[in-house]
Each structure stands twice: as structure tokens, then as C-alpha cells.
Amino acid sequence: MKKPVMVTADSTIDLSRDLIERFRIKTVPLTIVMGDETFLDSDSFNTADIYARYHKDGMLPKTAAPSIQDFIDFFSSLTEQGYEVVHLDISSELSSTYGAARMAADETEGVYVIDSRMLSSGIGLLVIEAAECRDRGMCASEIAAHIESIKDKVSTSFVLDTLEFMWKGGRCTGVAAFGANMLKIKPALEMRGGKLEIYKKYRGSIDKVYRQYITERLENKKIRPGHIFITESGEIGQDVLDGLEKLVKELSGCREVHHTMAGATISSHCGPKCLGVLFIEE
Description:
Blueprint lengths: L4 E6 L6 H6 L2 E4 L2 E4 L2 E4 L6 H11 L4 E3 L3 H12 L4 E6 L7 H10 L4 E5 L5 H15 L4 H11 L3 E2 L1 E3 L4 H5 L5 H9 L2 E8 L2 E9 L2 H13 L4 E10 L5 H15 L3 E6 L2 H7 L4 E7 L1
Parallel strand pairs: 1-2, 1-6, 6-7, 12-13
Antiparallel strand pairs: 3-4, 3-5, 8-14, 9-10, 10-11, 12-14
Helix pairs in contact: 3-4, 5-6, 9-10
């Protein structure tokens, strides 16, 4: 008898609470470390909290992956209910989360762990795909094989308003950050080989850059017509977001355009006014 399937992921998927409930997804949180304090990467500690703390004392958080035992407990709580599990994690190039989940799965029968090679709602797109496969009646092994076959088709990219947070987090030099700000350079990054790399440098006001970036990402692309994400890190005006959502709908032809907020893990590196358009190519 085929077992029911639970689709799970770590908390870096940056899906809204409504989407998590709609697609019946369970998540395991990373830990956010702020000095001597620790928080779970969840609704209780979010992007606004990071910026408030940074503006107060210049502190940015560090993140810690769940332990192997955390994953064993998480997976076992589901397999003991009779589920098989398809689990996706942030790229192994960026975090030890996948490694811990992989080792836990070796101790837990019926768990399929996938290195998404993505981050943020780029993982979320694969999670939704897995959930839709489950709802069409596919078994866990079939879902895992399907996700592995399409994960390289996910387009994950972002444009940054500032390099300040990457500099503070040790991801670029102070000279690079200073020069970018002086020249009003807005770097665009995309996932390549499981890593986030700068692929273009825009110039000008960030509101104009958003539209140029989105147009270039979506024009003349064969995009799967299901789901597309606008994921941003806060402090962008609602009128700007409304205009960008309209542009994404016009260019992508996707049935559903989802607007989500980047969580604490992602926002601590990209800073405010970061925005990405994420989708799966045909």
C-alpha cells in the first residue's frame, strides 16, 4: 500500500503562511543568532526586527543550521504517523543545512532529501511543485526524482539597492560597497551552480532598476505558466510593488503571481529594498 507523502523544507523557502497552509507544507527552522540571543527563523523574528536591531547597534545576525538530531526528531515525527517525506533544503554551497538533513535521513526510513541548489522562494517553487505532484498521486520516490530533474530550470535572481549588508556580513569588501554606493550601482545576483553570484550591475534609481531588471529577466523567456514569485526584503512602497506585479503578469503569462517577504536569513545578507523575480523555465 502506497504511503501518504509529506512535503517539507527548511525555513529559508520564504513562502507566506497562506501558501504553506494551502500546499500543506511543514518547515524546520534555522536559528538566528544575535549576540547572546537566539531566535528561530520564523514569524516571531522577521526582517523588520533585523533592520531595527541594525539601525540601533549595527549588529547583524548569524544563522545556524538545525542539528542532525533536530532533523531526526522532525522526520521521525512524520514517519511515525505513516508518512514518507520529500524534503528540500537551501543550497549546500550556502549552508550546512542539507548535510545535516541528509545524515538524519540516513537514520530515518522513507525520507528523501533534496539539495535544491537554490535559496529563498527559488526553493519555494520546487516545494510547491512537489506538493502539486503529491496531490496528483505521485509517490515520494517519484516526486523526488521529478524535482531533481527540474531544479536546474529554476531561475533565482535578485537586485540589491545597497551592498552595505553584504559588506557587514563579510560577503564583499568595504571598498566595493563604498564604490557601488558612490556610483549608484545596483548589483543583480543570480544562483549559478548553487552559489549566488553578481551577473550585472545596473545604474540609476532603484525604482527604475526594478523595472529594467524584471523586463530583462522575463522577456523572450519560455516560463512555466504556473507560479512566479516577486520576493522582496521590505521598505519598498506599495505603489511601486503594485506596478511591478502588473509588469510581471504582463511579461510572464503565469497564472499566479505570488508576492512574498524574504525571511530573516535572506534579508540579513541583502538588506532593505532587495527584490527578486523567481520562476521555472520550460
